[in-house]
From TrEMBL:
<protein>
    <submittedName>
        <fullName>Uncharacterized protein</fullName>
    </submittedName>
</protein>
Length: 115
């Protein structure tokens, strides 16, 4: 039941729907998180809009985890002085040599963390 890919339209819709739930605040718990049933609401909305996609709660939860992971990676890059952000184009600014060194460093950390 694994889902291989999300279309840009599906991701945009999921993000919009999740943001709507954040704005409603009815789905928030006392500790600031979401009630567990919010995934069911998002699943229903996604199935109505994309019935052929077979999007389930586990797929939604996985996509949200990926977004969080990507955000933390980007945040870590932007905390380094050699990285910048172009607000007009929503793009990362970095010299090729710096990027290549960063990728090499990240790859080595990944490899040695799993050896």
């Amino acid at each position: 039941m694994a889902r291989q890919a999300w279309s840009e339209e599906e991701e945009d819709t999921l993000l919009t729907n999740r943001t709507s739930l954040v704005d409603l605040r009815v789905w928030r718990t006392d500790n600031g998180g979401f009630h567990p049933s919010y995934l069911g609401v998002l699943k229903h909305e996604m199935q109505v809009l994309f019935p052929q996609a077979c999007i389930n709660e586990i797929h939604i939860e996985g996509r949200i985890k990926k977004w969080k992971s990507d955000y933390h990676k980007l945040d870590a890059m932007l905390r380094r002085p050699e990285f910048g952000w172009n607000r007009n184009e929503n793009k990362l600014l970095v010299e090729n040599e710096v990027w290549n060194a960063f990728v090499q460093e990240s790859t080595l950390k990944f490899v040695f963390n799993f050896v």
